[in-house]
Amino acid sequence: MRSGHEVAPSPTYLHEQLSYSSPSNDSNVIPDSSAKQSRNYVPPIVIDEPLDATALLKEFTEKCESKIIGKLLPGSNLKVFPETAEHHRKFQRLITEEKLKSCTFELPEQQQLKIVISGLPANFKVEEITEEPKNLGLKPTLVIPMRHSLPTIIKNRDKIQNYDSSNSCPKHLNTCVFEDVDEVVLKWIHTLRDKNVPISGPFIIEKFLQFAKALGYDEFRGSNGWLEKFKKEHGIMAKEISGESKDVDDNDSENWITETLSKILKDYKPENTFNADETTLFFQCLPQKTFTFKKEKCFGGKQSNARLTVMLGVNVTGHQKLKPLVIGRSKNPRCFKGAKSLEVDYDFNKKISDDVRNL
């Protein structure tokens, strides 16, 4: 398993046996036998084709200030045996600083592996987890030494293979305590999103508490931590609501601009061509963001009638702006009492949905 440090290999390699001794120790290179493992085992490090193995081994010795055991392997690779975990860390730092080609961390023959996967691709076959780790090409950062874990993986082979690989974040094979409540809440979220109703985090927690209590789970206590796990497990995220864009046909709009509008504008000068658009001011509005599923587009649906409609206009050159037109449902709103003048033109229409186009 490689650590990933790589540089262009040098054309010159050493093929002779190495030996280096610190001033107060005997030869520190074993040419043909493996080093004895200490009681607290420290994995050896194999450095691929160092440019100057003798100098590198000497530098290791000086940094650790103790006897260093090394072995020259076939292919001009240098195998170093750190005596302590601190020596091992120093070697790793030196390997990083020197930008050596690569290093290999080996495990004792009897030591087994626990496979920790930090994220699976969509096309990953979960049955591959039960194969021998050496055949999977795993990176060192994904394999953590731990005894008695591979038998556990093999024991749970059926659960792993039947696990839903479409899950957006399959890092752990966890069993949900409130699985039936999760299912009901997900159906509820789907129903609200089909109706374009905004959903907030506290709203989800409140509904989960209601459903959990109805199904006999009185011990459940909603929290922000639980909500984050629920969103991550089911691929739910917050998105900005895009008004009524769901009701607009993009093809019709594009065709009207390119074909019809261009014919209308060709007989008018830019200063005599105005663009007007309406917007709304909601005073009893719902949130502008909602929780929805990652792959789902977020639309707001129909807007509420509890609003003021405003029309703004300006000519193409930008030198002349129209006075804003505001439409409400009341002929004489209470907020206008005592007002001597307005900076806008105000009109009313009890059917506010008809807005400026029908005045």
UniProtKB/TrEMBL annotation:
Biased composition (Polar residues): 18-36
InterPro entries: CenT-Element_Derived, DDE_SF_endonuclease_dom, Homeodomain-like_sf, HTH_CenpB_DNA-bd_dom
Subcellular location: Nucleus
Pfam families: DDE_1 (PF03184), HTH_Tnp_Tc5 (PF03221)
GO molecular function, one term: DNA binding
Coarse class of the protein's main subcellular location: nucleus
Name assigned to this protein: Tigger transposable element-derived protein 4
Organism annotation: Araneus ventricosus
Gene that encodes the chain: Tigd4_79
